[in-house]
């Protein structure tokens, strides 16, 4: 039997309409848009196109739904231009392609106005006949996929059912969330027992575990991150839990390595935008996990992907081929400030 290879990413497909503004205005007041562009966005394009721009050499495939509209045409064109297999993408007239208006301030902070569109229709049935030779099945973003977030009598949620099915078909499974206020544990926890990799940020991890990972003075200690990671493993994640933040990332493996990796030091003047920085970090984790990197090397590469992402206003233009990013990483300096202190070095 031929060994599995590559990454199949499924879930949110959207177009980002990125606006760079002079400042964030008070309600009722005007701000100026100084630059704007359309670019692909969402978990599926951001992760896959990051891997493609890295020239990773991995076979890449997408699954999801777009509208039968210009934004949908644009997404498929972008993916196909980078060699991504799009046979798992469905087109529909029932809804427009998902869209986000992204407002990016001069300090790199961004605000999102999102229309879920066609991605909200994605359900287990769309994967019924989907069988590919890829090794990793990555799903994102839970909490924006309305049909997959619905309850399921047997598995708890439709997303848990989907992940179970994909594991049974021979994939390693991975999950990413979107950061949303409120208690969404009932929509996420059922999926964890069907995961090999969980890749989330500190806000999402705190919401799931009930363990505060950020406070008024900055970030919690690595020991607190360790407790959150251990709790998530106890819920059933089979291989790796990675919790990332601007200051650094905690990773833990079942029965193996656990470590805190500070973010790389980055000058504020180098930061153009942070759209998709979390997805770039995620792409780094997926590539390194696919290739069998140690956990510490995985986190270092993921931070590097995020740092290069920050050099552009959109999610992709900062990414460089993997050898170039690795050469940069060889000379990068960790942010020596410990967790528990604030830093703006990396916005993931």
What's a concise summary of this model?
With 348 residues, the protein is α/β, with parallel strands linked by helices. It is built from 9 helices and 17 strands.
Please give a structural write-up.
- This protein has helices at residues 43-53, 70-81, 158-168, 185-192, 202-209, 222-234, 277-290, 295-309, 322-331; strands spanning 7-11, 14-21, 33-41, 60-67, 85-92, 98-104, 110-115, 136-142, 151-152, 156-157, 172-177, 197-201, 214-215, 218-219, 240-245, 248-253, 258-262.
- 29% of the residues lie in helices and 27% in strands.
- The longest helix is centred in the last third of the chain and has 15 residues, at 295-309.
- The relative contact order is 0.14.
- The protein contains nine helices and 17 strands.
- The chain is of the alpha/beta class.
- It starts with 6 loop residues before the first strand and ends in a 17-residue tail after the last helix.
- Pfam families: PfkB.
Please report which band the strand proportion falls in: under 5%, 5-15%, 15-25%, 25-35%, 35-45% or over 45%: 25-35%
The SS-based structural class is: alpha/beta
Order of helices and strands: EEEHEHEEEEEEHEHEHEEHEEEHHH
Rg is 19 Å
The low-confidence parts are 338-348
Helix content: 25-40%
Major sheet summary line: 9 strands, mixed
Total of DSSP H or I helical runs spanning 4+ residues = 9
- What sort of overall outline do the alpha carbons produce when their principal axes are compared? globular
Whole-number mean pLDDT:
92
With strands numbered from the N-terminus, the spatial order across the biggest sheet is 5-4-1-8-11-12-15-16-17
Distance between the termini: 38 Å
């Amino acid at each position: 039997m031929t060994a599995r290879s590559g990454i199949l990413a499924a879930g949110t497909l959207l177009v980002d309409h990125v606006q760079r503004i002079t400042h964030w205005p008070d309600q009722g007041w005007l701000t100026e848009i100084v630059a704007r562009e359309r670019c692909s966005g969402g978990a599926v394009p951001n992760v896959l196109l990051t891997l493609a721009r890295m020239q990773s050499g991995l076979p890449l495939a997408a699954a999801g739904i777009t509208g039968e509209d210009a934004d949908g045409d644009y997404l498929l064109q972008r993916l196909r231009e980078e060699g991504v297999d799009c046979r798992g993408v469905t087109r529909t007239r029932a809804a427009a392609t998902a869209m986000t208006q992204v407002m990016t301030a001069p300090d790199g902070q961004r605000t999102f106005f999102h229309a879920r569109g066609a991605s909200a229709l994605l359900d287990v049935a769309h994967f019924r006949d989907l069988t590919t030779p890829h090794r990793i099945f990555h799903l994102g973003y839970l909490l924006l996929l309305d049909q997959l977030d619905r309850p399921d009598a047997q598995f708890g949620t439709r997303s848990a059912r989907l992940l179970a099915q994909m594991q049974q078909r021979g994939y390693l499974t991975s999950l990413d969330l979107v950061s949303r206020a409120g208690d969404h544990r009932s929509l996420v926890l059922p999926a964890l027992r069907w995961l090999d990799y969980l890749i989330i940020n500190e806000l999402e991890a705190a919401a799931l575990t009930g363990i505060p990972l950020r406070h008024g003075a900055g970030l919690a200690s690595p020991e607190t991150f360790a407790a959150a990671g251990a709790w998530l493993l106890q819920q059933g994640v089979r291989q790796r839990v990675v919790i990332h933040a601007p200051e650094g990332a905690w990773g833990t493996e079942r029965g193996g390595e656990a470590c805190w990796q500070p973010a790389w030091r980055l000058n504020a003047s180098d930061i153009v935008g942070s759209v998709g920085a979390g997805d770039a970090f995620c792409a780094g984790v997926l590539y390194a996990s696919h290739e069998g990197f140690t956990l510490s090397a995985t986190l270092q590469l993921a931070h590097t992907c995020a740092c290069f992402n920050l050099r552009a206003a959109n999610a992709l233009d900062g990414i460089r081929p993997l050898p170039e990013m690795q050469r940069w990483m060889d000379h990068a300096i960790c942010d020596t400030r410990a967790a528990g202190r604030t830093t703006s070095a990396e916005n993931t």
